[in-house]
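Weekly modeling sync, notes
Attendees: S.R. (lead), two postdocs, one rotation student

Agenda item 3: backlog of single-chain predictions. S.R. asked that every request posted to the team notebook include the full sequence so nobody has to chase files. The rotation student volunteered to paste the first one in as an example of the format we agreed on. Action items at the bottom.

Example entry:
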Amino acid sequence: MKKHISIPIFIPELACPFQCVFCNQKKITGKEKIPSPAEIREKIDIYLASSNQSETEIEIAYFGGSFTGLEPELIREYLEIAAPYISAGRVSGVRISTRPDYISADILDVLKKFGVKVIELGAQSFDDEVLRLSGRGHTADDTRYASELINDAGFTLGLQMMIGLPGDTPEKSIKTAKEIIRLGADNTRIYPALVIRGTELEELYHEGKYKPLSIDKAVASAASIYKLFESAGIKILRVGLHPSEGLLSGDDLITGPFHISFRELVLTYLWWEILESKLKGVKGDKLTIIVPRGQKNYVYGYNSENKNKLKSRFAKITVIENSSLNGRECFVDYSGS
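Predicted structure, as returned to the notebook:
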């Protein structure tokens, strides 16, 4: 199976007349201006030169803005940049991200003509009160309608969601995840809401009108959602916001559950749930855990969190990977008391 790579082209805020309370894309993406056609071609060429195209499926991905809200001439210009790479078989197609209310049958006709394969919608929530408090400017029904149009037109549908938005609860986030599944999304991204400098959410936070999730609550909520998507066979492309230089240095992040290894924290949490349910407080001399290939590090946990918990109960811990197991199948064997 080929490895999949997206060549990310960020177009911050250019087409969006709305100002969501959580959004300052220039801070989040680290991009202050839109890329020129020459810059885009240069970036694509650099990615292609460093990739083994016989082993990798590569797509061009326009992220960061509301792509289908751009002026039609600019949409065409960006898509025409990708056309020769698609014709030459050097990339498989184009992925875009956009708003649910910027989708129509006419727009989809244009996107299909120019090789767009995947459309990601920033759903964020399927609770109308959460959408209103977050300043999204669209309703849950707008997202449902756009999703149906995208599916009916034969595109691959992605639906992104956020947890911890104003008015959100773990229960509402679960309902959003279930609606993403019901709508037939092929892939998803789970983002915890962060308080970024220069956003309305920063003002609400300083006024005491908004409290972000703690890192522990964000991890627990994301883990519950992660399990739902896994069970439904939906690809989870990202868990946690991509770290820009500003977020890493702390200059632009005011507060909130940001962690550079957020996904690893979620997987650590999920594995601890499994181990705790199987061991149920048991103590002993030796513990052997058999898990699927590639899961050993997550079983030990971020910074060996799970391993350290187990070391307080078992003298010797061994984790063995077995290629015949899948997902998070797991066998444990312990001795002593």
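Discussion: group reviewed the output briefly. The first helix runs from residue 25 to 29.
Action items: rotation student to repeat for the remaining queue; S.R. to check formatting next week.
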